[in-house]
Each structure stands twice: as structure tokens, then as C-alpha cells.
Design goal:
The protein is elongated, with a radius of gyration of 29 Å. Helix 6 links the parallel strand 5 and strand 6. Helices cover 41% and strands 12% of the residues. A six-stranded mixed β-sheet has the order 3-2-1-4-5-6. With 270 residues, it is of the alpha/beta class. Helix 1 runs antiparallel to helix 8 and helix 4 runs parallel beside helix 5.
């Protein structure tokens, strides 16, 4: 080690203390950030559905026609709950042979949860088998199936309200009225021209219905037939928030630079 004689080495004491404090603060901050990253990565994550492109404004088009039986209610409820857990934004269109707007586009996804309860079996009580709650569409709304009515209304909402980055989630058994096929083909073509993606949650469809519907929509939009969102759900992206990872890296770089550029200087009496 090379020794350099200086006359006022005691004046360096303040700089030494400041350097030590900076090093200590950076080291403690880095440890805290690493601990936070470990805790974040260990935290259970809610699934992110792969149905819609990232950043899109979704509209759920829900089939509640007479052909939708209680056998598929659990799937409808699970779909709505998982969509509600994505922290996205969704409109909701409900249809049978007619359609109406239940939630406007841009509604926080949590607002889908109240609808999910109508399709969720409560706990059994008193030894009786549980039954699905009576929903407001059973007697006053359920009728024939015109999928073009639901998809058509969703398209009109997108156009009239100028929805940015729209995407559609169709939840249906695909048992469409034969007289509706021509209208559905026209709506499908309109979706293709507007470049609006459509995802399909097929509720136990008949093979013929599924094949026919796939042929129609394949000419109009991207189609993905799924059994249940939970069966295809994945967690995308890093489990650690991006800002936390970036901050950890930044502090580590600053600490490393401080060690390289502010090397320790030792002094004492000759």
C-alpha cells in the first residue's frame, strides 16, 4: 500500500463519516428491496386470463337464452369471477333473442361479481341440496337464441361510444337459432372489418354447433373455444412488480458504483 504524507488528515474524518453513512444507507435499502421482492414473488397470484389482448377494453356478451341450463351455470359463474379478478375493465351485454346493455364499457371488472352470484351454488344447509339463486332473467328474459343480437349490440356500443382497443368475450352454448345464421355471418364480417378480436367461452356446445360457429367466426375474428377460464388461465409477467425490480437494480448499481468510485481511504499517524 502506498503511503502519502498529509498534514491535516484529521479534517478527513467528516468525509469518512459521510461516506460510511451513504454506504450503509444504500446497503440497507438494497436489503429491504430484495426482501420485498422475495415477499412479492412468494405471494399467491390471481390468474390473468389469456382471452383478451393486453390493455384492451372488453365487453362480455353473455348468453342467457332458454337453452342455457343449470348444468353450465357453474361455468358461467366461474368465468365471471375470474374476469372480475383481473382488475380490467369490462362492459356486459346479456342476450337471448334480444339483447340489452347491463354494464357500460369501461366498468371496473369487480362489478361482474354481483352477476356471478346468480350462477354460483350456495352452501348446503339443513340437509337439502343447494339450488342456484333465482336470477332476474329466468322468467322475464330467457327465450330463443340469437347470437347476432348480442354480438351486434356489443358492436354498436363499441362504435357509438368510440371504445378504444375493444375486444369481445362471448359466453354461450352456441346453440343459435337456424334463422339467425345469416345475420350472424353479417355481424361476423363486421367484426373482421373493424379488426375487433372475439374470444369464445363455449358452454358444452354440440359438435355441429361448435363447428358451424367456428367456421363463421374464423372469417371474422380470432376465436378461442375454451372449457373454463380456470382451465386455461395463466399468470403472465413477473410475479415481482416491475417498479420494485427496477428500483432494486438501480440501488444495486448505485451501491456498486459507490464502491468502485469512492474507494476506502485509510489514514493514521506515521
Amino acid at each position: 500500500m502506498r503511503l502519502i504524507p498529509i498534514a491535516d488528515f484529521l479534517g478527513l474524518e467528516g468525509a469518512r463519516r459521510r461516506t460510511a453513512v451513504v454506504r450503509l444507507l444504500l446497503a440497507v435499502t438494497l436489503v429491504v428491496l430484495i426482501a420485498g421482492a422475495i415477499a412479492a414473488s412468494a405471494r399467491p397470484q390471481s390468474p390473468t386470463l389469456r382471452f383478451l389482448p393486453r390493455g384492451s377494453n372488453g365487453i362480455v356478451v353473455l348468453d342467457l337464452s332458454a337453452s342455457i341450463s343449470s348444468d353450465t351455470y357453474q361455468r358461467i359463474g366461474q368465468t365471471l369471477r375470474e374476469l372480475a379478478s383481473t382488475n380490467g375493465r369490462y362492459g356486459l351485454v346479456v342476450f337471448s333473442d334480444v339483447a340489452y346493455e347491463a354494464l357500460p364499457p369501461g366498468t371496473p371488472s369487480a362489478e361482474l361479481k354481483p352477476y356471478a352470484r346468480y350462477f354460483t351454488l350456495p352452501r348446503a344447509r339443513g340437509g337439502f341440496l343447494p339450488e342456484f339463486p333465482t336470477n332476474p332473467w329466468t322468467n322475464s328474459f330467457s327465450g330463443g337464441t340469437r347470437i347476432s343480437a348480442g354480438l351486434g349490440l356489443a358492436l354498436r356500443i363499441v362504435q357509438t361510444e368510440h371504445v378504444a382497443k375493444p375486444a369481445i368475450v362471448l359466453v354461450s352454448d352456441l346453440d343459435d337459432d337456424p334463422g339467425d345464421i345469416q345475420h350472424l355471418a353479417g355481424v361476423a364480417l363486421a367484426y373482421r372489418q373493424a379488426n375487433i378480436p372475439v374470444r369464445v367461452v363455449a358452454l358444452d356446445p354440440q359438435p355441429n354447433d361448435q363447428q358451424l360457429f367456428a367456421r363463421l367466426l374464423e372469417r371474422a375474428a380470432t376465436v378461442e373455444h375454451a372449457r373454463l377460464p380456470g382451465e386455461r388461465a395463466v399468470t403472465t409477467g413477473s410475479p415481482v412488480p416491475e417498479w420494485l425490480a427496477a428500483l432494486t437494480v438501480a440501488v444495486a448499481l448505485v451501491l456498486g458504483a459507490n464502491e468502485l468510485w469512492a474507494a476506502r481511504l485509510d489514514w493514521g499517524r506515521a
